[in-house]
Amino acid sequence: MFDALRRRMRRLRRPVMAVVLGGDSIRYGSALHEEQTFCEPGLVARHTADRKILLNERAIGCYAADIIIDSPHGVDEVVRPFGERMRAGAYTTRCVLRYLRERLAKGCDCRRPTRAALTARPALLDRLSDFVAGDARRAGIRKLHIVEEYVCLAAAVDADPAEPLLLVDIGATGTRTYACRGGVFIAEAFGETDAGGDRMEGAVLTLAREQHGLDIGRRTARRLIRELDDPATQSLSGKGRDRCTGYPRALTLSRAEFESVLRPVFERILDVCRTGLDALHIDDPASVRVELAGGAAQTTGLRTLLADAVGARVVLRADPGSLSLRGLTTLARRRLLDRAAGLGHLSTCLAQ
């Protein structure tokens, strides 16, 4: 009886919806149900030659027609609304927020939330800030908290104000670094580069196409990159489609060949990390904690390379892609969203 009453009371409460707009996926959840997180893989809209619109196997309202690009010669055009080109407008954002409210209420067995906390990379937040508050109200959200990405990450990693910290977010569209010393974020130490998961996968796709004559998918490229983590792996294998015959064919890549195409992407990520560490003005790099976040941070080879290059202590937590969402739900649970919106001082955020 008490379990039924508890479930009934939980359904009556309206949770705060936490939303992280990523380049290739959208993660969301609530502070009342931290164990339940959801992910929409990219909201990809594709316009085919026969004028059909496909929405990543999910029907996100009817907004796809507004963001499709006409492609020449009947070639499929793939659009990620919150991706690198950031083609999401007011109508798109409103439909996505309305859809996420419905999905969260259904997945958590609760009422539709009327409060939401939203974060994204800085460039996307700047683009959305002009209209997202008004369109959130039209989507049924009465109060919207816009929180900077670095504040969410700092809350998720339990940052110590006395310890120098470098947050490295390696996402699909690029890599961003946030440096903190003495409990204060240093704006001059923030860095960004477009080297990220998309660049890694693109390098592998180009290698398979130009050197081996095979077309492979991004899922295969992502799997090959993660298999590189095992030092004992000397060759990587997959399957692709022959560009000449169109028949399936096996693909085998040596470790040296694979590392050579990923090295330029890794070097660009290392450069922006070195810049952030230099701005901290720390004599002993070993005293700095480097926290990796983002879906592309799961490449353990990159973690090892970063630790050797900068000499700092590099930490990779479980499921780094959900680190920003974890920080948002933590702020909501501590009732710090009002103070966290636009917050630049770390110690005031994590004092309670």
What is the fold's blueprint, element by element?
Elements: H1 2-12, E1 16-21, E2 26-30, E3 37-40, E4 45-47, E5 53-54, E6 77-79, H2 90-108, E7 115-120, H3 122-128, H4 132-138, E8 143-146, H5 149-156, E9 165-170, E10 175-181, E11 184-185, E12 191-193, H6 197-212, E13 214-215, H7 218-227, E14 235-242, E15 248-254, H8 255-280, E16 289-293, H9 300-310, E17 313-316, H10 323-333, H11 337-340, H12 346-349
Parallel strand pairs: 1-7, 7-8, 9-16, 16-17
Antiparallel strand pairs: 1-2, 2-3, 4-5, 4-6, 9-10, 10-11, 10-12, 13-14, 14-15
Helix pairs in contact: 2-4, 5-10, 6-7, 6-8, 8-9
List keywords for this structure.
352 residues; alpha+beta; Nucleotidyltransferase, domain 5; Actin, Chain A, domain 4; 6-stranded mixed β-sheet; 5-stranded mixed β-sheet; 22% strand; globular; disordered C terminus
Description:
The chain has 352 residues and is of the alpha+beta class. The protein has 3 domains: 2-151 and 323-349, Nucleotidyltransferase, domain 5, CATH 3.30.420; 153-195 and 263-322, ATPase, nucleotide binding domain (Nucleotidyltransferase, domain 5, 2-Layer Sandwich); 197-260, Actin, Chain A, domain 4, CATH 3.90.640.10. The protein is 38% helix and 22% strand. The chain contains 12 helices and 17 strands. It has helices at residues 2-12, 90-108, 122-128, 132-138, 149-156, 197-212, 218-227, 255-280, 300-310, 323-333, 337-340, 346-349; strands at residues 16-21, 26-30, 37-40, 45-47, 53-54, 77-79, 115-120, 143-146, 165-170, 175-181, 184-185, 191-193, 214-215, 235-242, 248-254, 289-293, 313-316. The strands form 4 sheets. Strands 9, 10, 11, 12, 16 and 17 form a 6-stranded mixed β-sheet that branches. Residues 47-77 and 344-352 have low confidence and may be disordered.
